[in-house]
Specification:
It holds the Pfam family DUF397. It comes from Actinomadura napierensis. This is DUF397 domain-containing protein. By secondary structure, the chain is α+β, with helices and mostly antiparallel strands. It has one domain. The protein has one helix and four strands, in the order E-E-E-E-H. It has a four-stranded antiparallel sheet with strand order 1-2-3-4. It is flat, with a radius of gyration of 12 Å. It starts with 8 loop residues before the first strand and ends with a helix.
């Protein structure tokens, strides 16, 4: 899966002080996650259902 052309956005819960930010991007059926300080580094790609379950678990 080519992630280079995705539109990345800073996660709404990331720190606003410029450090430790997580960026998200959507693609067909998946959500990609990367570290904003290392945009060319590794990315985590998970299915939308798994990402929604993770977000729900983190809210509790």
């Amino acid at each position: 899966m080519d992630l280079n052309d995705l539109r990345w956005r800073k996660a709404s819960r990331s720190a606003s002080n410029g450090g430790e930010c997580v960026e998200l991007a959507s693609a067909a059926g998946v959500v990609a996650v990367r570290d904003s300080k290392d945009p060319d580094g590794p990315k985590l790609v998970v299915g939308r259902d798994a990402f929604a379950a993770l977000m729900a678990a983190l809210r509790h």
